[in-house]
User: Fold these one by one.
Assistant:
Number 1:
Amino acid sequence: MNAAAVRVPSGASVSRDPASGNPASDDQAFGGHVPVLRDEMLAALAPRDGGIYLDATFGGGGYAEAILSAAACTLFAIDRDPDALARGAALAARFPGRLHLLGGRFGDVLAAALAPDGWLATHGVHALDGVVFDFGVSSFQIDDPARGFSFRADGPLDMRMDRGADPASPTAADLVNRLPERDLADLLHELGEERAARRIARAIVAARAIAPIETTARLAGIVRAVLPPDRSGIDPATRSFQALRIRVNDELGEIARGLAAAAALLAPGGRLVAVAFHSLEDRLVKRFMIEAAGRAPAPSRHDPRGLLARTPPRFRLCGAPLLRPGAAETAANPRARSGRLRAMERLAAPDPVLPPEESAP
Ligand SMILES: C[S@@+](CC[C@H](N)C(=O)[O-])C[C@H]1O[C@@H](n2cnc3c(N)ncnc32)[C@H](O)[C@@H]1O
């Protein structure tokens, strides 16, 4: 496991395109905007002196810097992008001994945390006081054409957040050039919520028969030829690029694994805070938190799950079920509009241990 220190250029922040959930790809992203919902994240996490926290998506370090500045706490921070870790060196230097950077996917890193030789145990830590997730890609990633996330600048059709550290992970070019037309259409429909998925998939298959699709500009051109711009101002390629990015990085699988592992690491009173940027992410967070807090509707009496003992809730939802950026943040940064924050807190009472005869099978 990598442990590196990380740096945030002063004034750098991550803002998002409301339509795509992607960070803004123009200069505004570097113009000193605060990260999306940063104050709300801090209020929900409520870091305290002596606490031990984890930022599962370090990115540009905006949240990390806010947490470290808010309390004399220790922060572990994860990113799967080696560039993000490398940028963090200066932030770690500003907070000596308080910021520990970890490379890898948060799903894997969190799941491995408590192993006898895991990173928490080696730091003598057995539970966390708070975990924060800020899903998606950073402006550092989307603004670099060489990373292949952006349809606004030409570059290789890559989109791997980890720069290929996982050899099993396909590039976006692998997907568009190899997937059967039907699978491609399903992917665009399910992960991009793209209504024209079948037509776009057909156009991609026709184009790749002429020559492999290797660049972001070529793919964007193929999509735009199918879907001319409408009055929304949203680039027609937005949803297709979102779908490919989510699939290349298995983002939804990571969210499901990461939330479960993070919740298991929280000490009583510990908070889990998640910021999502599109409905697919937010749906996972919402369902997870509602179930953890015992707020999911009971199965009908005809559903066999109703026969199983329901485990008592281990969490409570914090504050409003969903926080959106306020008018001031949206006015200052229209790209923040799609941010959605949810938070829950681990209950202080230990899980009641049911006698064996009462335990669910
Ligand atoms: C939106 S940015 C976070 C921005 C950060 N909160 C800030 O204030 O600067 C998301 C970051 O999470 C990282 N990331 C996304 N999915 C990840 C995963 N499954 N494991 C580890 N890092 C991930 C990305 O590489 C990216 O750097």
Number 2:
Amino acid sequence: MNPYLNLHPTSPFGERTNPISGFHPGCDYRPVDKKTYAGISGIVTRAERGSHGEVFFVQVQGKIKDTIFYANSYHNENNFVQKGESVSFDTVVAESGATGITTGIHIHHEIRSYNLSSPFIKKLMGLIPSHIEGNHVFLTLINFINISIVK
Ligand SMILES: [Zn+2]
């Protein structure tokens, strides 16, 4: 079961004008019970804790059909996992919070991949909203989880 189906999205993936302009490369969610999920099954590659008001975030690296993806969650109050840990897409990896630049408690979750030439990425980009930036592509989280569960 995709845990993000139960969360209320507060700011969608895509171009936005308020309160911050530019492309929003992830989805924002109002957490339930302050839970932040991994988003992909794999290994925790970063679990960072700022000490001067910086954003706390968790990055999980997972592989689907020979393509490597990174799922990042930001603004966490507390990270519950450490680098090197194995997690499932629905593992609670952090307590949601409002660290870093934000107007309140929310989850900012994004999925990216650097394997721009993989056939699977090309297929995904034709199926779900995506955005290329430099050497990587951002994909919409909720659609991505559905596809990765069904894979
Ligand atoms: Zn966001």
